[in-house]
Amino acid sequence: MVVGAFYFIYNKLTTNHQLDFKVFSEFLSKNKIFSLKNITFLFILSSFNLFFEIAKWQNLVSIIKKITFKETLQQSLGSLTVSLFTPNRIGEYGAKAMFYVSGFQKKIVLLNFLGNMMQMLVTICFGVFGLYYFITKYQVDINYHKSARFLIILVLISTFTFWGLKKKEVTIKSISIEKVLNFFKNISFKKYLFCFNFSVLRYFIFSFQFYFLLQLFGVEVSYKNAMIVISSMYLLASIIPSIFIFDVIIKGSVAVYLFSIVGVNELTTLSIVTFMWLLNFVFPSIIGSVFVLKFKLPKPVQL
Prior knowledge:
- The protein is mostly helical.
- The protein has twelve helices and two strands.
- A two-stranded antiparallel ribbon has the order 1-2.
- It is globular and about 55 Å long.
- Keywords: Cell membrane, Membrane, Transmembrane, Transmembrane helix.
């Protein structure tokens, strides 16, 4: 897994058809904007982003078992490394479950799903407002007929899915939907609130980090206008299924399109997206590879 993760990272950096790594490094060196002070601040932002993700997971896991911050760190970074080359980070579910005995694993998968969905909810909430103001402000040409048709289909699918899930006999991997819904119902409102707040804090941190990079690259834009584009970018990128290692390509394509409308050149946008990917995914994954190498299956205990 570690060798595979490192290969994918290396391959992504050296064969990126959107932004050649040599051009990227030369562009950073030429602009001379990454002083020790700026780099330190960017790493601090990434550290806080990681901290709130770890704190969110520790808070969720406490529902079934109390774990230390060190254990949470190992689980979060180790699962991030494993999920690099799996579609939509699906590998994270199995990786986190492996840290627990079989009696806890199904609940761990559900808690991980809850944490990811809460982050998605925050992305959607801010993204919908951002996209609305973006379309209004920049008069983007949209085929409203096709968009309305897509929304109608989505609503119909969601309706039939919800109706199907209400049937008590529906099961997924021998787990009834009724038990899953009861599991989520038994989680206290306080836990949901903590999870939502941590997700919001993470969102503000990495979106501000993107804005800070825009400033470093000399893009003159107010925080409000920048957030309109950034929130729209994260919304559109998050709803596109992809292998996690290609996350930089997805976000890069969406970011180039959106920021080109507001006058930001392609090289600057791709450089910022790549740097964000390095700071928040690649470096934590490298640290997580150490935990993957040291991983040992938990000893069975009587529940």
